[in-house]
Amino acid sequence: MLKTKPNLSFTKLWNISFGFFGVQIAYALQSANISRIFATLGADPHDLSYFWILPPLMGMVVQPLVGFFSDKTWTRFGRRIPYLFVGAAVAVLVMCLLPNAGNLQFTIMSAMTFGLLSLMFLDTSINMAMQPFKMMVGDMVNESQKAKAYSIQSFLCNAGSLAGYVFPFLFTAFGIASVAAPGIIPDSVKWSFYVGAAILILCVLYTMANVKEYPPEQMAAFQQAAQAEHKAEVAAGGSKNKALNVFLQVGVVQFFCWAAFMYMWTYTNGSIADTAFGVDMTDPNHAATKAYQSAGDWVGILFAVQAIGSVLWALMLPRFNNIKVAYALSLVIGGIGFAMVPYCQNQYLLFVPYFLIGFAWAAMLAMPFTLVTNALEGSKYMGTFLGLFNCTICIPQIVAALLGGVLLKAMGDFQGNMLLLAGILLIVGAVCVAFITDSKKAKA
User: Fold this and answer.
1) Does residue 442 fall inside a structural domain?
2) Domain of 190?
3) Are 424 and 263 in contact (CB under 8 A)?
4) Is residue 3 a part of any domain in this protein?
5) Whole-model pTM above 0.90?
6) CATH value at residue 420
7) For residues 432 and 444, what is the distance between their CA atoms, to the nearest angstrom?
8) What is the dihedral of CA 67, 69, 71, 72, to 10 degrees?
9) What is the number of H-type helices and E-type strands within the chain?
10) Which of 58, 112, 338, 394 fits as disulfide partner to 422, beta carbons 3.0 to 4.6 Å?
11) Confidence of residue 382 (pLDDT cuts 50, 70, 90)
């Protein structure tokens, strides 16, 4: 029986993460359209950030539980895959319900309540489907290939994002209505969610058919070998607390990064509607105007440009000799991109900052998990730790969402200033990268 994890072919590494493509389409549709959906249902701009509390809150609850229970799960279908399938199946159902919140003859408050409940179940299921992919890389890929495996996952993640982001724009171009009666979600958004749901379940079924997880006895052999190596490192002077130190240090960086992206998802629509589409954001009915809905379609295109930048930069990251240099540089470039957004009054000029923002996103998807899973190698509770690590993604989003309305008012009610703040947060995160312990000087 093998004592160390073998090198896997590119095809096997690809198959482990392929279902992530479909999961990310669902996540992209949520990220790009939630503010638009709730603004269309009648939400006040100062309240938009509060609707974004639910997604990270559910992620903080669900992902540690998925990690904890999947660590102890062994079935003929696998260890992580059962959770992946259940999460995807629920996500498909909710993706068909959420965009119909305005069609059920509800009052404004009832429609938003239905939308909130749908959002809660959608994000719960997306998190349940997303986390197993990260865990399977931790379970099945050896330390020397983890950076490559997470880079493949980052590529598929951004390819899925690209598809999800452009769907509303493409369906509008195909003649499906992008404007509806006040309080009703446009058909272009509805069909985007329907098609995204179909792709999600097909991608997950592909991964289930093509990935065979290691059986319990093989995993036990790998863990024993890794633990023996860890004991040798400690005897040679290594730190017993290395994993915890790396966990906390990367978590500090994560705080600033994910707060920044929370503000991008929340305020991009209002920012570019104001600066590039000439929408009067003081008009109580601004969300029902064609210009505002056109800005909403354009947000998908900008996020797609971000995904393209991320895909291309993900191909460059493995060329860096030092993971910390790659991580910090990516965040600085992304911070510059955020700072440019409020000053771009041409919708096409906005391609530049969002392309640069993609550099930060590529690093955020790959670098933290490479650092943390390398530090956790050999642990029997890899899934539990990665679930807890997801709190470093969720907590900053919750904090940012709670402060969003207050900060928006303090910044003169101009949503573009929230993007400027996001840029500052990313650069602070880049500075914090210097304090991460990286004893092995891992390559990106």
Assistant:
1) no
2) 10-211+239-433
3) no
4) no
5) no
6) 1.20.1250.20
7) 17
8) 180
9) 15, 0
10) 338
11) low
Contact 55, 125 (CB under 8 A): no
CA 291, CA 110: separation in Å to the nearest integer? 26
pLDDT at 196 over 60: yes
DSSP label at 211? -
Instruction: Name the residue among 379, 386, 339 with its Cα closest to residue 153.
Output: 386
Q: Is 2 among the domain residues?
A: no
Q: Which residue has the tokens 């906390």?
A: 248
Q: How far is CA 10 from CA 18, 149, 153, 209, in A?
A: 12, 9, 12, 17
Burial class (CB in 10 A: 0-12, 13-18, 19+), 309: buried
Residue 236's beta-bridge partner residues?
A: none
The DSSP secondary-structure symbol of 101 reads G
User: What is the Cα–Cα distance from 273 to 280, expressed in whole angstroms?
Assistant: 8
Q: Which of 269, 279, 346 is nearest to 32 (CA)?
A: 269
Question: Which tokens is 205 given?
Answer: 């079924």
pLDDT band at 53; cut points 50, 70, 90: confident
Q: How large is the average pLDDT for residues 165-176?
A: 89
Q: List alpha helices for 145-215, DSSP H.
A: 146-173, 187-210
Q: Does residue 340 contact residue 272 with C-beta atoms inside 8 Å? A: no
pLDDT digits (tens, 9 = 90+) for 226-249: 666 655 554 444 444 677 788 889
* Coil/strand/helix, residue 329: helix
Total of domains in the chain: 1
More confident residue, 373 or 357: 357
376 falls within a domain: yes
R_g of the chain computed on alpha carbons: 21
Amino acid of residue 107: T
Average pLDDT, the chain: 84
Please check the confidence at residue 79 and state whether its pLDDT lies above 70: yes
Read off the pLDDT of each residue in 128-155 and give the average, rounded to a whole number.
Answer: 82
d(CA 111, CA 106): 5
- Token reading at 322: 């030092």
Contact between residue 137 and residue 373 where contact means Cβ atoms under 8 Å apart:
yes
Distance in Å from the first CA to the final CA of the chain: 30
User: Of 187, 188, 185, whose CA–CA distance to 106 is shortest?
Assistant: 185
3-class SS of residue 78: strand
Q: Give the lowest-confidence range in 227-231, 251-255, 279-283, 293-297.
A: 227-231
Rounded-to-integer distance, Cα 442 and Cα 90, Å: 38
Single-letter amino acid code for the residue at 340: M
- Measured between alpha carbons, how far is residue 45 from residues 37, 180, 409, 413 in Å? 12, 20, 10, 9
